[in-house]
Queue: 2 jobs
Job 1
Amino acid sequence: VVFNKADLRAPAANEIERLDRGGIPRVMVSAAAGTGILDLREALLRLAPADFFDNRRLVSDLVPPGEVAVLVVPIDKEAPKGRLILPQVMAIRDLLDGESMALVTQERELRNALTRLARPPALVVTDSQAFLKVAADVPRDVPMTSFSILMARFQGDLTEQVRGTLGIERLKGGDRVLIAETCTHHPIGEDIGRVKIPRWLTQYVGARLEFEHTQGRDFPGDLSPYALVVHCGNCTGNRREMMSRLHRARAAGVPLTNYGLTIAYSLGIFERALAPFPAALETFRGARV
Ligand code: SF4
C-alpha cells in the first residue's frame, strides 16, 4: 500500500497495524515533496512478478527469423577450456529459439566468415575484448555490439547504464572505481576486471584511479565512496538483483555502467556498439549535448 501526501499527514495507527498484521508492505511517499520515491521503486522491484524479469530476449529480437548473426568468440588463455561461456551459450540458444542462425567464429577468422555469407549478417556480436579488431573488420553498415552490452539490456537497464557510462567523463585522478562481478571466478592472466578495464579506463582518463573489486554477493550497501561502478554482465545472476543494484547506485548518485559499455566507450566506438539499440543511442546523444 502506498500512502501519498506523507508531507501532509501520517496514516492512522490502526491502519498501519492492520497492514503489518497482514504482512502487507507499506510505503510513505510525497509526490509533491519527492520523498519516498526510491523506497517505492525498491518495493515495486521486490514485488514485481517473475515474468517482468524473465520474459525477455537476449538477442533474437535483433535478428529476424532466417537471418544470420555472427558471434565472435576469442579462444585465448582466459577462455575456459573445452566450453563456451554462459552469455555465448545463451545467445546461440536464443537465436535458435528465434528461428534465426548463428555463425560462431574466432576474431582472426571473422573476415573470412563474412566473405562466405551470401549477404551481410543481421548482426555481429563480439566479446568486448575483441571490439577494436571486430569494429575494423565489420563493414560500417552491419550492426555490431558485444555480448556484454546484450547482457546489460537483458539483465538490467541498458539506457540507465548508458547514462552511467557518461560518468567516465567525470573521473579524475584519485577517484575510487568499484569493479563488481556477480560470480566468484578466479582471475587468471589478463583478467578483464582486474587488468584490462583498469588499464583502458586509466588510459582514457589519463590519471591514476583507485580500483576496488567485489565478487558474488559482496556488493556494498553504501556506494557513496565511489565515483563510478563498473559491473560485469551478470550472466550468472538474475535481473531482479541487477535492478536492485542499479537502484542502489541511483539512490547514492553514483553512475553504474558495465564491462562492454566501458570498453566501447574507452576505445572510442561507443556509438557504433549502441547502434542496434536506438533508444539507448538517443539517450547517449541527448545526455552528451
Ligand atoms: S557473472 Fe559476470 S564475471 Fe561472472 S562470467 Fe558472468 S559476466 Fe563474467
Job 2
Amino acid sequence: MRFSKPILFITCLLPLLWIAISTGQAVNPIEFLTRQTGTWALNFLMITLCVTPLRRLTGYGKLLLYRRMLGLYVFFYAFIHAVTFFVFDHGLDPAAILHDVIKRPFVTIGFLAFILLIPLAATSNQAAIKKLKRQWQALHKLVYLIASLGVLHYFWLVKKDLTTPLIYAGILAILFLMRTPFARRFDKAKLQKNT
Ligand code: HEM
C-alpha cells in the first residue's frame, strides 16, 4: 500500500503523544515518563522481533519493509527513556550516573541494552547494509540479546507483581522458539518455494 509507511510512522508516534499529554497530569511526572518510555521501548522491540516470524508464517515478504522503521522506534523510545534518567533523575551528573550504573544491577542491565542498541540504530541504513554485508547480519542478531536484557532489566526492577515482565518473557520465549528448525518447518515462504 502506497501510504503504509507514513501511516506506520505516525502510528508509532502516538504513544509519545499520549505520554506527552499524560506526563503533565501524573502524580510523579519523571517516574511516569521513565516507566512509559521504557515500556514502549520494550513494546517496539517485541513488535520488531515479530516481523520476521510473521513474514515466514504468512509468506508476505513486504513486511520486511517496516522492520527498519520499527527498529528505529525502539531506539527512539529507549533514547528518551535513557535521557529522562540521565537528565531529570541525575541532572546530567556523570559521577551520579556512573554510581547508579555500577551499583544498581537493573540500571547496569538497562544501560548495557541501550549501549548495544546504538550500533544497531547507527547501521540501520542501506549504505551500512551494503558495506557490512554478512557482518551486518551478525551484528543485528544482537537484537535478541538486547531483548533478553530488556526483559531482565524489567524483572530486576519490579518489586512485587511479576505479571507484566513474565508476559514479556513469555513472548520472547515464543519468538526464540519460532527460530528453531522445528518451527521453521511451518514457514509459508519456504513451503511455497519448495512447491
Ligand atoms: C541507559 C539505559 C537505561 C536506564 C538508565 C534505565 C533505567 C530505568 C529506570 C530508572 C526505570 C524505572 C524504575 C522504577 O520506576 O522503579 C526503568 C524502567 C523500565 N525500563 Fe529502563 N533503563 C534503561 C534502558 C532500558 C531499555 C533499553 C529498555 C527496553 C528495551 C528499558 C525498559 C524498561 C522498562 C520496560 C521499564 C519498566 C516500566 C514500568 O515500570 O512499567 N530500559 N528503566
